[in-house]
Amino acid sequence: MAKNAFYAQSGGVTAVINASACGVIEAARAHPDKIGKVYAGRNGIIGALTEDLIDTSQESDAAIAALRHTPSGAFGSCRYKLKSLEESKREYDRLMEVFKAHDIGYFFYNGGGDSADTCHKVSQLSERVGFPIQAIHIPKTVDNDLPITDNCPGFGSVAKYIAISTREASYDVRSMAKTSTKVFIIEVMGRHAGWIAAAGGLAADDENDIPIVILFPEVEFDEERFYARVKEMVEKYDYCSVVVSEGAKWPDGRFLAEQGTRDAFGHAQLGGAAPVVANMIKEALGYKYHWAVADYLQRAARHIASKTDVEQAYAVGRAAVEMALEGANAIMPTIVRKSSAPYAWEIGQAPLSEVANVEKMMPREFISENGFGITQACRDYLTPLIQGEDYPPYENGMPKYVTLKNAPVPRKLDDFAL
Amino acid sequence: MAKNAFYAQSGGVTAVINASACGVIEAARAHPDKIGKVYAGRNGIIGALTEDLIDTSQESDAAIAALRHTPSGAFGSCRYKLKSLEESKREYDRLMEVFKAHDIGYFFYNGGGDSADTCHKVSQLSERVGFPIQAIHIPKTVDNDLPITDNCPGFGSVAKYIAISTREASYDVRSMAKTSTKVFIIEVMGRHAGWIAAAGGLAADDENDIPIVILFPEVEFDEERFYARVKEMVEKYDYCSVVVSEGAKWPDGRFLAEQGTRDAFGHAQLGGAAPVVANMIKEALGYKYHWAVADYLQRAARHIASKTDVEQAYAVGRAAVEMALEGANAIMPTIVRKSSAPYAWEIGQAPLSEVANVEKMMPREFISENGFGITQACRDYLTPLIQGEDYPPYENGMPKYVTLKNAPVPRKLDDFAL
Lengths: 418, 418
Description:
Two copies of one chain form a homodimer. By secondary structure, chain A is α/β, with parallel strands linked by helices.
């Protein structure tokens, strides 16, 4: 009798995590002899813990296919970290109980570093208790910080969005610079690593001589050098674009965004590195500015997703199922770069023991010597990842995204308090 | 002998103002017997005042065609308002001097209300001094606040961007709401009128039951009613999206963005209605939030421009030239809506005496009774304006926008101090 599969989405969602879900479910549907139903966790792993499962077999093939072009997490995601097998013993035992009750033999967990760790532990526990679960982690993170895999699905689309938005806004400020705005500041995601900020550098190229100053989390912020650089750019070009990572920090380790701003009632600052940097430039150099904070817009922007990213997100979902059917356990499908130009990639795999809790930082040789830009090596790495457009279908001028029925699987167990 | 034409871009640029420039230049090139060269003002009207003219005849047909898909103002724009013929006599006299020196018989001015007024005055002065100039205003404004014309080129693309971005971010926050973000706030442009904010309402429709709370400049902000509405939505849907216009105001007339925030050095607030609203929600209701400020991204987003908007922007540019060739003066081509469903429009014209200095506000019947949403009448108005996609060409994953050579026309006059 074919075992059922469990699939869950974890952490911050992306423009293409549903493409991975699509890959998982379509691959599973192609093997009804080996995989029964695919149950999804409602709101991620919380759905497993509370036995709040979604029966994806109730969704039509068309609805599942539409996941490929729908941003966000169709089953809901969550931020809920399981700790060690000892500390979170109650939760891990519950997972086993739920998996047994619903005859689940496959655990597909779609997320970043923390979920790779959880996935690894589920696999270990399953061996220890003698209840066989093949646990496969499916990579997803806009932060691009998972090890071994050349890149993470989700990142390419954010990179494309930020590169395009920075180019478009730079054209805008260039038009206005004579009498109005001279500096445009865009804040991008990436609390720990500057991968997304680096993508802002792609706004400039041989045919687009745009002055861009990037503030990376990896580079200690030097106020005076920053002002000097912005001033130099404005004097040369009459304008300048600044891409600031939300993770950019003062030398003392505080984020730029935390500069002790208080409102009239003494409440803590309202957040945002972009307005802080804008104000600093205004005070130091007197330039008129505009600033934007892309926030969720950047990771939800399925309308301008990278075709490469969509294909890879789908492929890792599909590969997870295929690897499981070949007997794999405690692994993660990876993206292996065979060549940058022309770009060629294939699916590989990495043992979860080598993935869990390892963060891949941006190499120093990707950041220009002055610390404010990207190098050719960085361009060579990033450019393939934003290749191609994969437009969603439109109706009435709006993208037609799918909202699933998300029908619950009847419960069999008692309540579980989180 | 064919007279030359002068074209200038004025005020904040848009995703499609260059499509109007494309329409003007292509139409002029089609009539070499009647129009000599098209000179563009470098940085708008300032280029005319300082005799800093751009010879567009140096640009290839392909480069001019590429303006149709290039955002921003290709010749530079400016914020420089001419006042009455008396107060700004020196400037108006100078314009005449420059136009005479360069044998200019056509004045095409592409902008909003202020430039319509300038255009009107140039036409009046030209009659008064007996130097014939046909002055035609070409409508452009993301604010959609020009009278008589059914809508303004530039608005439809911002509306589409905001509607799509709000839908995408709403899908995202919906995914995260169980354990994380419950309220997403997006700030949009529109200091005087809520047209752009209204477009956020299009994120929801019959197939997308998304809770959206809009803060319009037209509706006095009632803090308690706002909290109650957000709470109601979060309790019903588990999340909520807020679209706040930069023009939203406290009952005493201050913008929401100006709430007296000071940084550690006592400097005035860093700006942004979105972070202010986010903080208010957090304090009053305790919901975790995320916020975005789209700023220039929204008006520069040619990558997701409305096809209708692009076509109309091009059409008003073309029509301006054709009307001039038919002898028109002191008019503005308008967009006339013949039918909403199916959408049908044609080009009309309005005398500048009726356009200048009149601001079109959003009708009250476009705002729902509770003040936080849009009505069906508003949807019927907005929906046609965001119809269709008009994707730019891509190369290496990035949109291929054109940067013109912008070769200067040799000067003939003395310097002029602004």
